[in-house]
Amino acid sequence: SYELTQPLSVSVALGQTAKITCGRSNIENINVHWYQQKPGQAPVLVIYRDTFRPSGIPERFSGSNSGNTATLTISRAQAGDEADYYCQVWDSNTEVFGAGTKVTVL
Amino acid sequence: QVQLQESGPGLVKPSETLSLTCTVSGDSISNYFWSWIRQPPGGVLEWIGYVHYRGITDYKSSLKSRVLMSVDTSKNQLSLKVNSVTEADTAVYYCARFEYNGYNYFDLWGQGALVTVSS
After folding, report:
1. CB under 8 Å to B70, separation ≥6 — which residues?
2. Among A35, B13, B99, B116, whose CB has the most other CB atoms within 10 angstroms?
3. Given CB atoms, is B42 within the 8 Å cutoff of chain A?
4. Distance of CA A56 to CAs A37, A44, A96, Å?
C-alpha cells in the first residue's frame, strides 16, 4: 500500500489560516478523511470524503483534494485548534493513516 | 447520543493474549460496522481491523494471524483479542464506528484504553 506524506508540523498565527497537506500519488482518485487529536484525547473526525464536515465541526475547517495532494484548511485559527491532525484513506483493502501533523497556534 | 467505552486489563505479559471489550450505548451495535485502531505511546494511528455482527471481519494483513474480533449483540459489545503479544503491542486501543460504505472512515471513537505489554 502507498504511504501518506504529511508535514511533521505546521505553525499558524492566531486568526490566520493553516493548511495541512497529505500527499500520495494520484490521491485525488480516492476519498480522504481527516481527524483532529488533542493531547490525551481520542481522535475526532473533522472532514470526510475530501470535503464534508460532520455535524458540530466548525465551518472554519474545510478540505480539498486534487492531483497528488489533499489539504485540510483551518481558517481563523484559534488556540483550541492546537492538535495533531491525521489524514486517512482506504487503499489496497486496508485503512492507511498518515503520520500526523502537529499544528501550533502562535 | 451514541457512546463507546473500551475496557479490559491494562497490563498483559509477553506471549499472552490481550483482550478488550467495547460497550456501545445509545444505538444498536447491529446497525453498523466497527473497527479497532491502536496508537503506540507518542506514535501514529494503526488500523487493526473491522467487524460486523453478521460475522464479517477483515484484519490488517500484518496482524491477521494474531487477531480476532467479534460482536455480542445481547450485550451490545464488540471485543478484540490479540494473541502472542510482545512489547510492540503496547498502545492505546480505540474502538470506533466504521462507516463501511465505500468511503470507509471512522466517525465516532471511544476514549481509548492503554494496554501495556510487560513482564
Report:
1. B51, B78, B79
2. A35
3. no
4. 15, 11, 25
Interface of A with B (CB under 8 A): 31, 33, 35, 41-45, 48-49, 54, 86, 88, 90, 93-100
Query: What local confidence, expressed as pLDDT, does residue A2 receive?
Result: 61
Q: How do residues A28-52 score in pLDDT, each as one tens digit?
A: 999 999 999 999 999 999 999 999 9
Q: Which three cell numbers stand for residue B93?
A: 486501543
Contact between B99 and B30 under an 8 Å Cβ cutoff? The reply is no
Look at residues A63, A67, A77 and name the one whose alpha carbon lies nearest to residue A35: A63
Please name which of A38, A72, A39 lies closest in space to residue A58, comparing C-alpha atoms. A72
Pairing of strands B33-39, B46-52: antiparallel
Taking residue A86's Cβ as centre, other Cβ atoms within 10 Å add up to 25
